[in-house]
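Fresh eyes needed here. Kindly weigh in on this sequence plus structure tokens:
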Amino acid sequence: MKAIIIGGSGLIGRKLAAILKSQGHHVVSASPSTGVDSVSGAGVAEALAGADVVVDVTNSPSFDDQAVLEFFRTSTRNLLSAAEAAGVAHFIALSVVGADRIRDSGYLRAKRVQEELIEAGGVPYTILRATQFFEFLDAIAGGGAPADVVPLSPARFQPVAADDVAATLATIVVAAPKNGALELAGPEASSLAAFVQSFLAFKGDARRVVPDAKATYFGAILDDNGLAPVAKFIPGPTRFADWLRHSQPRQ
């Protein structure tokens, strides 16, 4: 099978490529650095020629509301057009849990536009919505921000390991198109504030997380369901404590 990974130089793209190559598939990792730009369209048709499956794991370089909307709208249209012309049998896109119900976030609104374009397109598809990755917790906490206190939402949170996202995508690559969305989350749920506090404590970061129902996440005030799935989902196997031990050495 020939699989094209659009955004192949990123975190998930690299992990997915390694899995698929280990299974014997012909994998092409495409990104602007390899001459494939899904926004301008440069190199897209050439990259998709002869592809059986296309996996879109791209992300916008800007998180400004209008910029991220234009990125996903333009990129997705270009990819779908090229995929249809190339006779691609399965178009797979990585999206975010909550994109269909959290409307205050410009980023999640843009991801929903991406989903809608795929749903209305002429290429058989599967959308995988994943919760936030464990690997994003430092960024959610504000990186090395000097503030002593980090206000974060107490909404429900169920993050997942990036390895589990890539493994799930690899399973979808060799399966028939769902023509619908699947959701993936980690095996444990708590609050956003509690997860980040545990992460900071493990790192030896003295900052204190304060639950604040008015704290926004990418511009959104989260309801009780927050960033966790509200219906059937695929549970990633990696537990938070295990990921911490293997991925985040104590300081």
Summary: The chain is about 35% helix and 20% strand. The CA atoms of residues 96 and 129 lie 4 Å apart. Residues 2-247 form a domain with the Rossmann fold fold (CATH 3.40.50.720).
